[in-house]
Sequence to fold (912 residues):
Amino acid sequence: MATETLVSFAVERLGDKLIQEAKFLKGVSRQADRLHRDLRAMQCFLEEADKKQEEDSRVRNWVSDIREAVYNAEDIIDMFILNAQSLRRNFFPKCGFKKLINCYKVGKKIEALQLGLLDISNRREALGIKNIGEGRSRSAENQMLQGLRRSSPHAEEHVVVGLEKEADELVNQLIGGDLRRRVISLVGMGGIGKTTLAKKVYNHRQVVECFPDCRAWAYVSPDCRPRDVYMQIIKQLVCTSTKDQQVLEMVEKLQEHELGDFLHEHLKEKRYLIVLDDVWSCRDWNCLAKVSSNDPDCLGNVFPDGGNCSRLLLTTRDKDVALHADARSTPLEMQLLSKQKSWNLFCGKAFLDHVDADRYPPDLVQLGREMVDKCNGLPLAIVVLGGLLSRDMSHTEWRKVHDNINAYLAKEGSQTRVMTVLNLSYIDLPSYLKPCFLHLSLFPEDYVISTRKLFLLWIAEGFVLSAEQADQQSMKVTAEVYLNELINRNLIQVVRMSVNARVVECRVHDLMRELAIRKAKEQNFFRTHDIEDPLSSSTSNSSLFSSKCRRQSIYSDMERYASVEHNTPYLRSLLFFNLGHEICRFSQLDFIGKCFKVLRVLDLEGVKVESLPSIVGTLIHLRYLGLRHTGLKLLPLSIGNLRSLQTLDVNNLKQVPNVIWKIQNMRYLYMEGQKYDIPLKIDTLENLQVLSGITFKQWIQNNSSKLTCLGKLKLEGRYELVEGVEFWKSIAKLRVLKSLYLKASEESSFPSLAMDSCLYLSKLDIKGHMQKLSESFQFPPNLSQLTLDSCRLDCDPMPILEKLPKLLTLRLRAESYLGTEMHVSANGFPQLKVLQLFELSKVIKLNIENGAIPWLMQLHCQFSTRISGVDKLSNLVEVKIVIDSMIPSFSPFARFLSTYRSRKYHLYWDHS
Fold:
């Protein structure tokens, strides 16, 4: 469970507050400090309790009590700070008396909480909860589930759909290729069919012929026990007849390390195939193969490499395991089924005749298709659903399952516990990833999530902790590491990647989201509300949510939500989503400031807001304020009071109020599209890391040397309003600046830019008319990524750009060059890996001399651009061509591709 992590985060936040808010906590500091120490002591037992609560309801209640105590402590301190801040703004004589009363009340609440903690602590020993490391429990439910999941190669599925291509590819890898011992991995989310495909290949005729005498299948499980795995293999390879019983008896007496040595000796001279089904971690692989921790590149001491084409086949949910086991082999990443293949699989299970499903009643077919869509291509869910419905072909039964599909997929039973199978992925998560996964439950079904926004939300929630708390620069990097780990574990799906292979957008599979929702509800992590959402807590005009709820996610009917009674005074996060069903708007937002006084996250993106009331300025605990695409034109001056605010995300304002300088904790400031270019002081924001949307004129009026943490900067407006030399001096003062985006207004233009003083800049985007391209020596010396957009250059930019020694990515877009030909000379672009040429309507020819762009891997261009010399690009692996629908013939393009049949191509038709 994530309880241990959530409590740890809360305790850490409490400790930070005691330090940061010392001036407000005078009078109760001693009690608060004692409370913090008591809670930290309780943390020591939570990891063990987390493991036990799956099987013991008493332990589950004990953990819930600790979570409640920590939340109560947070609430008490946050409300005390809020009241103290309010009293500091008043200078009436009676305020001193109110402060004394406030301290007295808080002291009493802390004393009561400490008594409660004492009782919780006394119950710990009675429940058998030990310190971390003193005891290990294995959930009875998990043991039962592992028994149900224990795979055998002999129980092959009769109805297998959509795996023909993958099976052929896998067979070729097993029986062909190099002579070295290889580890070939099947990777995918739980229930996607890894074991099914492995069985199909294991029993394939060609594979059996290739490994006639030495094949074995072993189920590993999340609770990896090398001795059990070795015995499974040995029984299949060695003890195959009654005369081997003496050998078996002897083997069973061996220690684990002796079994590994025995297996190694038996396999040493043989060509073998061993399937290890369900390997969960790199550590498990190391234990099974006996890979030395001092030499992770070694092959291990159990599965020898005899140079005879021996193979191991792994199934795993974690891509990192596959790459760790054999970095030289590319894992086969299994994909979700298409709609048609999903339907074929369902028909084979539900109608027992997937060839002639159309002869069944149309009402069942319609219900069936809707239920299959809900499974989102996950084979396990489709198979379970089909088997369930095959027992009763009545409309009533199918309608009942249709209306409660998630409940049926989680229903008790040997094969029908889809959620329990998926839950194994959650249980296996390290503690720091569990809150991040639970947080995904706040987003609507099938919602495409911006990773930039997701990282900022995780940071605001306190889920991302850098190695050093003071090292705030690394937090976004750490958040990205967390995301990639969830992706590699197949808990998140990638929707869109950037040109430099970073995830830009992602989503969560419907059933994974359902799992996250169930886990989140168990811990009062969040509640969601939608008129059509069965998860909605209420449909009356009374309170919609539990008073203990920490986060709320609202999908529709904003005005109704604003009008109901709110009984969640300690709410920390409030997210609104406009799903496009209607124009969602708020006529007034005062209720947020009145009802949710300790709010940390408020996101209104996409919801039409007439105005932001000044009461929002009283939310002194607010860390994230999302106002993008709300239609707001002005912000209240009180926003300067949000002293805890880390992220402000807003766009298209008439003007930004000149109070931002007061928000000392601001780290991420987005304010693109200002209408009026009025002065804006920002050089007091010493923690600022991202600044996007400030105008050139506003920027030059600030002392940039004070912005010591600024790593990403986007400037826009009229460049000619600033003096060029002074401007670039101000940029050069930014010692950690890595990314710079310059956007000139339509009536403005850039002269030749002297950027060579920007020693630390690695990414540069320039959008707008350029009078002349800078010489190569005027560019930043460490530039690795360059984008030119709408620059309208008359001269070929390649002779200058090809001399940039460290350039890895070059993008020329949207009429950045108005000529007809471009030429890359020999030895040009010595390190370039990605070249994009899009919307250059007049460019008809690109000449690449022999020896140019030797490391180019990706080439993106238009069909109308003829490229000569591309056949000399030996490292090219991907070509993307935008094909205009008006092209009269496809044959020239076919001839172009015929030279590169062995390479990977993506073709896009532009119908604009």
